[in-house]
Design brief:
Layout: H1 5-13, E1 31-37, H2 41-54, E2 59-62, E3 78-79, H3 88-100, H4 102-106, E4 117-121, H5 124-140, E5 145-148, H6 149-155, E6 170-174, E7 178-179, H7 182-195, E8 199-201, E9 206-212, E10 215-221, E11 224-233, H8 239-244, E12 253-264, E13 272-274, E14 281-284, E15 289-300, H9 308-321, E16 330-340, E17 347-350, E18 356-360, H10 370-383, H11 397-400
Parallel strand pairs: 1-2, 1-11, 2-8, 4-13, 11-18
Antiparallel strand pairs: 3-7, 4-6, 5-6, 9-10, 10-11, 12-15, 12-16, 13-14, 14-15, 17-18
Helix pairs in contact: 2-7, 2-10, 3-10
This protein binds flavin-adenine dinucleotide.
Length: about 425
């Protein structure tokens, strides 16, 4: 079933009776070449690129709930390529390029909107740091523009420019950054993978990983045992728990991150805007809701809901930056479980168990990574060697101390990244 303007027109005129299911609802088979644990954005994109780039289609994605019910459906949908350090820079640059062609690639409307992101700075020191980052982004081949205070005012006239405590000195704009519809990304990759023969199995929780003589043999699930030549753990906030099934203790802490959406409003905010003094960022969805968030709740938890001090903090930051948002009613708030690594950068690597692979450590920035992560993980699983854009995402960097990519210079404290 291909989507096109003509098809939408035809279905609209004939009662929308011709649309089929977007993917097959598969039941588990006895054995697969590859089993992917986790039906989030990264698991689904890995399955898609295993089939598309490597012709490996005897694959199952095992999801304990429903596809897209994890963080892929809970994030604030920001897509950008503004990393500075080698390792991250080329990876996120690759990801943004994949995003730019994703709708055509998947024949699916993921509502990619390159509306631009502006990160504000509020001191000379912050300006210097962001100028340096902007130069690194340009050096990587991505776009970045420094804006003066007046330049920011032209784009974002509704900000509080008279706030003496947090004066706005300027900002850095990435025009190619923006937003995409989060769950459509999961659905698009799911549909593409399923069409190529991948089994997507929902309500199938992995409860154990079978290992014999240092080699993975398969998994135990709530729907029975499944044999597999290769297994990839791609479960974001549950990474430590699932890796423990293979006897691994990961350098990952799970933390809650909240997000909020207001009632639908007329178009007011054209960009993604990030406050430079507090962790607060905002955009407006196509339905009109203001979508915004802030920092982690600051203690480790597996609860996919947040707490009131976090809510207060985000609202305060929003009011300090743009007092006009105080008039909007907040309709919903929710939380997701973030897989925080000690340097704020991800892991895509083999494990000490032969045939067992790991993809995790996305912190609160893994949505924008979904296409490149799937691309790189599929490459690793298929060929046994890291993809050139993800060669630095090694697990052993936390043991040896070599190759750490501490983008925020926060040190080895998971919740500060
Ligand atoms: C509030 C919030 C805002 C965010 N904002 C952004 C943003 O603006 N930009 C950005 O780039 N990133 C953002 N992120 C981060 C991003 O959403 C995550 O990094 C990314 O979605 C994680 O990867 P995933 O999609 O594969 O995870 P998930 O969707 O969580 O997928 C993992 C899946 O594994 C399944 N699973 C777990 N255990 C098992 C098991 N034992 N057996 C089978 N299945 C299992 C889970 O049910 C889940 O569906 C945000 C996150 C949150 C919560």
């Amino acid at each position: 079933m291909r989507f096109s303007g003509l098809r939408v027109l035809k279905e609209g005129l004939t009662g929308n009776k011709g649309w089929g299911a977007h993917w097959r609802d598969a039941s588990p088979r006895e054995a697969y070449d590859v089993v992917i644990i986790g039906g989030g954005g990264h698991g689904l994109s890995t399955a898609y690129y295993l089939a598309k780039n490597h012709g490996i289609t005897n694959v199952a994605v095992l999801e304990k709930g429903y596809l897209g019910g994890g963080n892929i459906g809970r994030n604030t949908t920001i897509v950008r390529a503004n990393y500075m350090l080698p390792g991250n820079a080329e990876f996120y640059s690759h990801s943004l390029k994949l995003w730019e062609g994703l709708e055509q690639e998947l024949n699916y409307n993921v509502m990619m909107s390159q509306r631009g992101q502006i990160v504000l700075f509020h001191s000379d020191g912050q300006r210097d740091a962001l100028a340096r980052k902007g130069n690194a982004m340009l050096g990587q081949g991505d776009d970045a523009e420094m804006l003066s205070r007046e330049g920011v005012r032209r784009h974002l006239p509704y900000l509080d420019f008279d706030n003496a405590r947090f004066p706005i000195y300027g900002g850095i704009l990435q025009r190619r950054a923006g937003t995409a519809r989060h769950d459509a990304v999961a659905w698009g990759f799911a549909r593409g993978a399923s069409d190529r023969g991948v089994d997507l199995i929902q309500n199938c929780e992995v409860t154990g990983i079978d290992i014999e003589n240092g080699t993975v043999r398969g998994v135990q699930t709530t729907r029975g045992a499944i044999r597999a030549k290769k297994v990839a753990i791609i479960v974001a906030g549950r990474s430590s728990q699932v890796a423990a099934m293979a006897g691994m203790r990961l350098p990952i802490e799970s933390h809650v991150l909240q997000a909020f959406v207001s009632e639908g409003l007329k178009p007011a905010i054209n960009h993604v805007v990030s406050f430079g003094m507090e962790h607060f960022y905002i955009s407006q969805s196509d339905k009109g809701g203001l979508v915004f968030g802030g920092h982690l709740d600051m203690y480790a938890s597996y609860a996919a809901r947040g707490n009131l001090p976090g809510v207060e903090h985000v609202m305060e930051a929003g009011m300090a930056l743009m007092p006009m948002v105080g008039k909007a009613k907040v309709l919903r708030a929710w939380g997701g479980i973030m897989d925080m690594s000690p340097d704020g950068s991800p892991i895509i690597d083999k494990t000490p168990t032969e045939g067992l692979f790991l993809n995790c450590g996305w912190n609160y920035g893994g949505f924008k990574a979904v296409p490149a992560s799937g691309w790189a993980t599929a490459h690793l699983v298929a060929t046994g060697t890291p993809h050139e854009t993800a060669g630095k995402f090694r697990l052993d960097r936390f043991r040896t101390g070599y190759g750490l990519m501490d983008e925020e210079a926060s040190g080895a404290q998971h919740n500060l990244h």
